[in-house]
Amino acid sequence: MADNTPRIAVIGSVNLDLFTYAETLPRPGETVTGATLTRHPGGKGANQAIAAKRLGAEVAFVGCLGNDAFADEALSLMRTEGVDLSVINTFSDVPTAVALIMVGADGENLITVASGANGAFSDDYVVVPHADAVLCQLEIPVDTVMVVAEQVRGRAASLFALNAAPALPVPDALLAATNLLIVNEHERAAYGSQLDGYRGLLATTYGVEGAVLSKGGVELARARPPKVDVVDTTGAGDAFSAALTVALARGDAPGHALEFAVTAGALACMGAGAQPSMPFCSDIAARMV
């Protein structure tokens, strides 16, 4: 590894996504036939781990799975990409998390998530690998994320990044321990005045309008994504979060880091599914010339 290769630890969710595609979505009590089924590894944590790895980082992932048939499949792409999976917790009595996603011909969808092992990821299973940056999300219990943040805070050289999604109630102490907070515009609105006193780096994304990076209410950078042919927006936020964390961990200036991140998020929209469509550094470099 080159000296400037950042080490990123992603601690969070991993699951298997089961997609059905049909002409119409069922109404309550209705059965729809003729659908097709696809399966993809998913979970915001796993998505971000793959994105960080493809963007040039050395990545370790920490998560929880069940001892069932879905576990290996949920890890398959991370394993193929070379993510360090040496700290994976396996439960004998809790299943691997599964997302059931029904998609209609018009793109509308219905989603049900069985949190399984992600929801059982308690602080007893927290291990924080040595890293330049640690990235979490809120698809595992908030109390567990708080324990991670506290452990990282004891390491002066580590950056703790939190993609506060989905928007959930979080204690002020978690925000105080967060160096980089990443939200979209809807999550920013949901947290409201709680973020008024936040003093770390705050990245807010606005879809096709781009993103803003600020600190203590002062704007540091603003960037717009390149225009792309959108196929599927799933995972765009995960690509952004991973890219911004990687760029800041390797010492990029705020403006360049934000441009790198919005470009990654845009390129992730060009393929179907979250993990398969995560871009590589070469893809981003070609768009930032």
Structure explained in plain terms:
- The chain has 289 residues and is α/β, with parallel strands linked by helices.
- The chain has a single domain (7-14, 43-93, 121-287), classed as UDP-N-acetylmuramoyl-L-alanine:D-glutamate ligase, CATH 3.40.1190.20.
- It contains nine helices and 13 strands.
- It has helices spanning 44-54, 69-81, 116-119, 142-153, 172-176, 185-191, 236-249, 254-267, 281-287; strands at 7-11, 15-21, 36-42, 58-66, 84-91, 97-103, 109-114, 133-137, 159-163, 180-184, 201-205, 211-215, 218-223.
- It has a nine-stranded mixed β-sheet, sandwiched between helices.
- Strand 10, helix 6 and strand 11 form a beta-alpha-beta unit.
- Helix 8 crosses helix 9.
- The longest helix has 14 residues, at 236-249.
Quick take:
One of its GO terms (molecular function) is ribokinase activity. The protein has 289 residues and is α/β, with parallel strands linked by helices.
Kindly provide the radius of gyration, computed on alpha-carbon positions and rounded to a whole number of angstroms: 18 Å
State the end-to-end distance: 25 Å
- Number of extended strands: 13
CATH class: Alpha Beta
What fold name goes in the CATH topology slot? UDP-N-acetylmuramoyl-L-alanine:D-glutamate ligase
For the largest beta sheet, what order do the strands appear in spatially?
Answer: 5-4-1-8-9-10-11-12-13
The share of residues in helices is 25-40%
In the residues, how many domains can be counted? 1
Low-confidence stretches: none
Instruction: Please count the helical segments.
Output: 9
Order of helices and strands: EEEHEHEEEHEHEHEHEEEHHH
